[in-house]
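Why should sequence recovery work at all? Because a backbone constrains its sequence more than one might expect. Tight turns favour small or flexible residues, buried strands favour hydrophobic ones, and helices have their own preferences. The token representation captures these environments compactly. In the example below, the structure is given first.
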């Protein structure tokens, strides 16, 4: 089985950028997805261009920070920032999907304008089930891959993995979880993506998310001999999203 460890949130903070870089240079992370509206976007773009072997995707968001566009009222609160995750999920029927497409396009184009080639899309806070038709349309338009977080959806014509796992998270950051997920799907799966969030902790990160200490645990594990041994024991090979699309 070919396994992808995709590091979400590239650009969220300086610590996240350098944590993902560490997991790429000394660990099993070969792919990451970038937040276009993130505080450390410029640093992320610089690091991405200095490390062309690190596969970059777009981490499209409707639940973090402020939109790139100013005229997307169905996606924003009175503050002008995106709706909170729980509010977005609870009011999905009120979303203007034309606004979603325009905002996602603006996020994609910002990353491309920074001189970065994008290989795939995924979403912040796993909102794929809410916006999947828009993601599918844009993946075909830009000829890139998609995270398969809606496993039974129709991905015809869109490069993706056979499986996606969100189990490598919080208390699931263990060799046993990695091995269990791989073994559970080894008979019907050739490609599997694990979502991950390695980072060094900094003040910006602490101000933006409650998922903090676990990121250091992820980084430690993803750069360890333990993860290499776990993958070897189940016959898994680490690849990037770009390699899966070939």
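From this structural description, the recovered sequence reads:
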């Amino acid at each position: 089985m070919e396994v992808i460890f995709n590091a979400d949130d590239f650009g969220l903070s300086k610590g996240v950028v350098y944590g993902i870089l560490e997991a790429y240079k000394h660990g099993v992370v070969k792919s990451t997805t970038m937040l276009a509206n993130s505080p450390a976007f410029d640093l992320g773009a610089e690091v991405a261009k200095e490390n062309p072997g690190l596969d970059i995707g777009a981490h499209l968001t409707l639940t973090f920070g402020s939109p790139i566009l100013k005229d997307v009222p169905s996606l924003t609160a009175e503050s002008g920032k995106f709706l909170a995750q729980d509010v977005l999920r609870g009011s999905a029927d009120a979303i203007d999907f034309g606004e979603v497409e325009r905002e996602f396009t603006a996020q994609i184009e910002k990353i491309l304008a920074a001189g970065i080639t994008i290989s795939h899309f995924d979403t912040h806070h796993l909102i794929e089930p809410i916006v999947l038709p828009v993601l599918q349309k844009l993946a075909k338009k830009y000829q890139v891959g998609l995270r398969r977080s809606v496993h039974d959806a129709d991905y015809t014509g869109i490069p993706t993995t056979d499986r996606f796992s969100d189990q490598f998270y919080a208390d699931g950051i263990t060799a046993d979880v990695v091995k269990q997920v791989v073994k559970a799907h080894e008979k019907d799966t050739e490609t599997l993506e694990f979502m991950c969030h390695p980072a060094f902790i900094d003040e910006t990160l602490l101000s933006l998310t409650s998922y903090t200490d676990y990121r250091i645990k992820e980084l430690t594990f993803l750069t360890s001999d333990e993860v290499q041994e776990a993958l070897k024991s189940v016959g898994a090979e680490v690849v990037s999203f770009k390699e899966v699309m070939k």
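A few observations help interpret the result. Residues 144 and 206 are 32 Å apart (CA to CA).
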